[in-house]
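User: Please predict the structure of the protein below. I'd like the answer in structure-token form so I can feed it into my own downstream comparison script.

Assistant: Understood. Taking the following sequence of 274 residues as input:
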Amino acid sequence: MDASAQKTGIEEYLIGILERSKRLSYYARSRGWAFIMTWAHRIAGLILVLYMLFHIFTLSALYEPAAFASKMKFVNHFVFSFLEWALSVPVIFHALNGARLILYEAFGTRKDAIIIRWVFILSGIYTLTLALFMVMGNQEVSAGFFWLIVAIISAISSTIVYKRLWHTQNGMLWKLQRLSGAFLLPLVSGHMFFMHLNYKAGHDVDTILARISSPGIKALDVAFVTLVFFHAGFGLNTIVGDYVENKRIRSWLAVLISFILCVFAYAGAKIVLR
């Protein structure tokens, strides 16, 4: 192993804590930490799917602004603020670890130790910065400018992945999964960051309604909802395919997952468009 991949003191300490679990220790020795990272990626993805379903359900109250405002007063409690911050951990980990996997597939990058280290460093910077802005309160950042920059970065990211993977022999859905991941990497992490940078943008009913009335924001939000639920559906069906051997049960589960996610995707798009 090259010197740049040697474990630091902090890494040794954290790995020592994780290795107290017999199961984690066994898989770390037999299959490597990259295998554990893959499972952590899936678990983080499952958490985010459940959150998105809950998020769409909550936003449906926008049809009755007074009811939504009442819910937001309840959510403003410290416990819920902490949970909102805690959600940033699976969000940024899933995003950056997804970028790690795309680096492997699109560019053949195999420096596991170094890339995994940077996944955790950047995740830590993101979550701590988010916590700082949550403590500071509303920053009144221009929504139009912020989302223009994020949209440009998302477009560049997905274009690079398209050029690297589109002409490979992999299936169409597999390619679209990677493209959606590349597009969502800046978009999802940017969405959570903006919602707490501009606190009112995610909690004040008048600010939310004013923001989503913009045609540009509507288009971006519809793309966001569509890609998130497609990405989630492909990921869930991949997990089902890995662990359900019976083809008939697999097929029924695939139909059920697709139906539920399509219903919520439609509900989310309808909220934005109305």
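That's the full token string. The chain has 13 helices and no strands.
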